[in-house]
């Protein structure tokens, strides 16, 4: 399968714990994006990478959130000291650089914070 | 602040009918408008996309109509099927990176 993959698909944690999610983009894509989707809403942009460089972060990405893409391939998103408000679907997407800017999404990681 | 406004919130269409979902935007810097389909528990899947230099794009049963002067675009699903029942999101992108999504339309196609 050559699509975007995410792991784990589901994560249940207790408030205050740290969690880490992984995203593997489509292999030739050099841009990688993280979005967050809450129930009944469209995805909201969190951050993106071009190769290994993190080029932009949304104001939604608090200090408890950190993302990395160390070798320009897979990426990790870590949430420290989770809060109940962090419960959401975390989506990863990848794309080529312009002009072909279609973003292809992975299946997401559903986070539930108890 | 929602940069892309989508309507209706939900839609029920009979099998074989036409489903129409509308979106409007304000930012004239947007230059790429995709539509995504999302099934429960899955990530959004890219359906079809348009750039503002064309007024219509058709792929199979899916058509995007684009009105640049009105800053509106819409998705038409012809011959709607029960398998089309899903949530549909419009989005917009400028020369940057972040897709701006509408709030979604939940489509139910009845047999």
Short descriptors:
heterodimer, A: 114 residues, mainly beta, seven-stranded mixed β-sheet, four-stranded antiparallel β-sheet, 49% strand, globular, B: 111 residues, six-stranded mixed β-sheet, five-stranded antiparallel β-sheet, 11 strands
Describe this structure in words.
The complex is a heterodimer of chains A (114) and B (111). Chain A is an all-beta fold and 114 residues long. Helix content of chain A is 0%, strand content 49%. Chain A contains no helices and eleven strands. In chain A, strands 2, 4, 5, 6, 9, 10 and 11 form a seven-stranded mixed β-sheet that branches. Chain A has a four-stranded antiparallel β-sheet with strand order 1-3-8-7, with no helix packed on it. By secondary structure, chain B is mainly β. Chain B is 0% helix and 53% strand. Chain B has strands at 4-7, 10-14, 19-25, 33-38, 45-50, 56-59, 62-67, 72-77, 86-92, 100-101, 105-110. In chain B, the strands form two sheets. In chain B, strands 2, 4, 5, 9, 10 and 11 form a six-stranded mixed β-sheet that branches. Chain B has a five-stranded antiparallel β-sheet with strand order 1-3-8-7-6, with no helix packed on it. The chains are: A mainly beta (114), B mainly beta (111). The interface between A and B is medium-sized, with 26 and 24 residues.
């Amino acid at each position: 399968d050559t699509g975007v993959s995410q792991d784990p698909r589901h994560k249940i944690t207790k408030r205050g714990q740290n969690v880490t999610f992984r995203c593997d983009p489509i292999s030739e894509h050099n841009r990688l994006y993280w979005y967050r989707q809450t129930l009944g809403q469209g995805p909201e942009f969190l951050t993106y990478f071009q190769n290994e460089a993190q080029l932009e972060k949304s104001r939604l990405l608090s200090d408890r959130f950190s993302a990395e893409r160390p070798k320009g391939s897979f990426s990790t998103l870590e949430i420290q000291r989770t809060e109940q408000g962090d419960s959401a679907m975390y989506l990863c997407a990848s794309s080529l650089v312009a002009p072909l800017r279609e973003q292809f999404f992975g299946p997401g990681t559903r986070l539930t914070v108890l | 602040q929602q940069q892309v406004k989508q309507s209706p919130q939900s839609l029920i269409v009979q099998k074989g009918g036409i489903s129409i979902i509308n979106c409007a935007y304000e930012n004239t810097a947007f230059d790429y408008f995709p539509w995504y389909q999302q099934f429960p528990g899955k990530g959004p899947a890219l359906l079809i996309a348009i750039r503002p230099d064309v007024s219509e794009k058709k792929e199979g049963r899916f058509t995007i109509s684009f009105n640049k002067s009105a800053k509106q675009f819409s998705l038409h699903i012809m011959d709607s099927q029960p398998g089309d029942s899903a949530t549909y999101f419009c989005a917009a992108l400028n020369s940057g990176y972040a897709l701006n999504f509408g709030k979604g339309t939940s489509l139910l196609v009845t047999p």
